[in-house]
Design a protein that fits this description.
Largest sheet: 5 strands, parallel
Strand order of the largest sheet: 3-2-4-5-6
CATH topology of the largest domain: Rossmann fold
Helix content: 40-55%
CATH architecture of the largest domain: 3-Layer(aba) Sandwich
Oligomer: single chain
Strand content: 5-15%
Number of domains: 2
Distance between the termini: 13 Å
Order of helices and strands: HEEHHEHHEHHHEHEHHHEH
Shape: elongated
Length: 344
């Protein structure tokens, strides 16, 4: 009888031990970490590249090489997305735009790797470029050759002067420079986009170039001269996007006929005012929201905060198993002693 009790107890101990060991093998050790991905409504990092438009030139709080103006569209987007992301995570912007940059200057920066650190882990890269390739020579002609440097001088400007042989020669030289710049732009934009894709998996968005002179009658003659050139740049931006390498934010379409409303042209400044930046922010938001974004977080697998239950580690399991077996063996000894006393 005693042997039968021991045999039954041993079999039970082995069975329970196997069950506990199997359970332990299937459990994940407490403290082990894994990356958890969560879909979020907005990007966490946006990088802005290019010229004076994302830099915020022309806004009241613009400071050269200073902080991004709060009324600029990069700052407006950052504030908007931080509100949408709430306490999940934060949205940050990295503004690498610089007033006066042409496509050649931007290609130099991207191609030499000087922007690599800024582009790391970016969700979105916004590119505003091409405007200075056209407006640089155009404004140089207006300021230096025509001697028109403010709005009053423009109102009094005699367009008959454009028929003067010497003036026409200088104007033609400016147009030839613009044509040359556009040819360079067509090469540069492809190289810029390719280089960006080599440095980040983020979505690339390219802005079209608006005509800042198209809604003021006193500037009509100049608007006509550069309008076709701007359209040529925009056609390149739009047609190249068919490859799927980037999205297009059509700033030109939104600004068409509204330069007096959206720019500082009344102060003889071609840059967007606060209303213009708000309009660009709304347009950019539409393009940014075409993509999905994820937040990655390193979490402890054994974390009980979500389930209300705590997973036991293998160490804790083995301790429990030892205590169980010890208690069980003591019970067997006690039962055996009692049994022997009764049978003696």
């Amino acid at each position: 009888m005693f042997k039968k009790i021991l045999s039954t107890a041993a079999a039970f101990v082995i069975a329970v031990g196997c069950a506990f060991t199997s359970f332990a093998d299937d459990e994940v050790e407490q403290g082990e970490m894994e990356i958890v991905k969560t879909e979020i409504p907005a990007p966490q990092k946006i990088v802005f590249l290019g010229d004076s438009i994302p830099a915020g030139y022309g806004l009241a709080d613009y400071v050269k090489d200073g902080e991004t103006p709060l009324s600029s569209y990069p700052a407006l987007l950052e504030a908007k997305y931080n509100g949408e992301l709430s306490d999940i995570c934060k949205c940050s912007i990295v503004n690498c735009a610089s007033s006066g940059d042409t496509s050649s200057k931007l290609w130099q920066k991207v191609g030499t790797g000087s922007l690599d650190l800024s582009l790391i882990a970016s969700d979105v890269v916004v590119v505003s470029i091409g405007g200075n390739d056209i407006m640089g020579p155009a404004l140089e002609f207006i300021y230096n050759d025509l001697k028109v440097t403010n709005k009053e001088q423009m109102k009094k400007f005699d367009t008959a002067k454009l028929s003067d042989a010497q003036t026409m020669q200088k104007m033609n030289a400016a147009m030839e420079k613009i044509t040359e710049n556009i040819s360079t732009f067509k090469v540069n934009i492809n190289k810029i986009i390719s280089a960006i894709h080599e440095k980040t998996k983020g979505t690339v968005i390219v802005q079209t170039v608006y005509n800042p002179l198209d809604s003021d009658p006193s500037l009509a003659v100049f608007s006509g001269l550069i309008g076709a050139k701007i359209q040529e740049v925009n056609n390149t931006i739009t047609s190249n996007s068919s490859s799927g390498d980037y999205l297009v934010c059509d700033v030109a379409g939104a600004f068409a006929g509204k330069s007096k409303e959206y720019t500082n042209i009344d102060d003889f400044d071609i840059h967007p005012n606060a209303d213009g930046h708000k309009a660009i922010a709304d347009l950019m938001d539409q393009q940014i929201k075409k993509k999905k974004y994820e937040h990655e977080e390193l979490k402890e697998v054994g974390d009980s905060s979500s389930s209300g239950k705590k997973k036991i580690s293998k160490g804790e399991l083995y301790l429990t198993l030892g205590l169980f077996f010890g208690g069980f063996l003591i019970l067997i000894v006690v039962v055996t002693i009692i049994f022997r006393k009764k049978t003696s």
